[in-house]
Amino acid sequence: MRIMQVVNIHPYNVAAWYALTLSRLLQQAGHEVLVIALPDSPSSRMAQKMGLRVESLELNTLNPLAVPGLYLRMRRLVRSFSPHIINCHSGEAFLLWGLLRKEFNNFRLVRTRGVQNLPQDNLPNSILHRRVADAIIVTNSSIGAHFRNLLQVPKDKLWVICGGVDTQHFRFDPEGRRRVRAEFGYTDQDFVIGLIGRFKESKGQREIIRSVASLLHDFDLHHIRLLLIGHSDALDESRIRAWISGHGIEQITAISGVREDIPACISGLDAAAIPSTQSEAIARTALELMACGCPTVASAIGALPDLFSAKALIPAGDVPALTVTLARLAKHEHIRHGLRQDQLSTVSQLTENDFLLQTLTVYESLLS
């Protein structure tokens, strides 16, 4: 197949990761892939680094005078590449792709929705999603329910594909565990809880700090340690350190900074938390933690309820519930073992190959 992946997402965020990972997998499987990206964007540079063919278009322009010229450039690309499938991963310019779909009538148009900021129930959105798109891929079932129940998208046009993880790269690394624990001064008796994520309010660093402080001071779990695997983003590291100091856990908390050895860092943990308070439309970090066999608890938002059993889920923002759940993990090896086995079983069906095959099923159904 010849497939255009439209990745007009400026930052290399989790939605861009989803789109470019899919592009790489399709290319490795022998399909001809063309990525359409924003000029000189982090996503465009990452696509090139992955060895993908990239064309740049200002698809997110707000200048109405630029739209006719943009449409002509899009038209030329469609004519020269002659795609079987165009898969759009962002809503900007989707209407223009729809007009090209109607003009050429020789490709199928797919819209992937991987953000929790959901479209409103109005006539334009109804037309775009029910008539213009040939198929809609959503990254979790809660987004799917919105499209099905509010926008009345037919069931046969709606597909849930969570993504996939490279289980050859993300797996338990015993040597990495020894190295990382030695680096941060952890002993075999320490119980290390980790959180992976850039420093943002929505990622739950404040919640995990409060929870670990309670484990230490209220539950008397003096072997608890906290490893924040991340770095400054919307929140500066100094803000995180102030929270740590304010809760009296600076002696048991470490911040990793930027790391290239994420599988080893995960392997160095005894448990992990994803206490996010918003979004998690695409659960990349959850898949990586699960693939490494790290027992993980998570907020019941976004894609996370699709992946985790009820016993591993907590209400978003509920620090007491998070604390009680982590205390059980710290005290009871059999609970950790049960979560680990459940999560390894789940992720065994969410590999990169599963991601590829599920997406090809959608594409092939449109072309048959």
TrEMBL record:
Record-level Gene Ontology MF annotations: glycosyltransferase activity
Record key words, sorted: Transferase
Keyword check for ATP-binding: no
Keyword Oxidoreductase (UniProt): no
Top-rank taxon: Bacteria
InterPro entries tied to this protein: Glyco_trans_4-like_N (IPR028098)
Regions annotated as coiled coil: none
Domain Glycosyltransferase subfamily 4-like N-terminal: 16-168
PANTHER family registered for this protein in UniProt: GLYCOSYLTRANSFERASE (PTHR12526)
Protein name: Glycosyltransferase
Organism: Desulfocurvibacter africanus PCS
